[in-house]
Amino acid sequence: MVGDGIVAVSRNRVADMRRVVVIAVAGASLAGCSSFSVDAFKSAPPTVQVQLDSIPSGADAKTSVGPGCKTPCTVAVPAADGGFTVTYTLNKFQPATVQVQVINLPGDFSTPASTTIDPNPVVAELQPAGPPPKARKRPPKPKPAAAAAPAETPFPPPAAR
Question: Which of 1, 82, 88, 134 could bond to 59 as cystine, CB 3.0-4.6 Å?
Fold first, then answer.
């Protein structure tokens, strides 16, 4: 009988330990759910290839969403709603900015969703910068007037010594 009591106590401890473990695991999993966000299921917007060019070639093109390159080139940009701008710069030319629209077309059962860029290719014609302003010339200083011939005076001229 003494042996039976030890077995009963140890079975109760095992059952109690199982309960403790189950409660601890359940608590940890619920704590993980409290920090769970629906954003985890959202995928990053797909990227689309955009061709950038300028007249003349060789301008630095920078998109408002990050990537940039030296024209002519192609960059991958996120296809987020709302569009973006491309700014072109080149020495001795005025900078130019082009607005680009991102058009997301939702799909249905028979067609997949698609994204288009308008315009694509994005082209800017850069205008030459005007000549730098010329330095203003100062008007010349008037020369001192030559000594006028003395008017006739009743006095004789001074004697030369």
Answer: 88
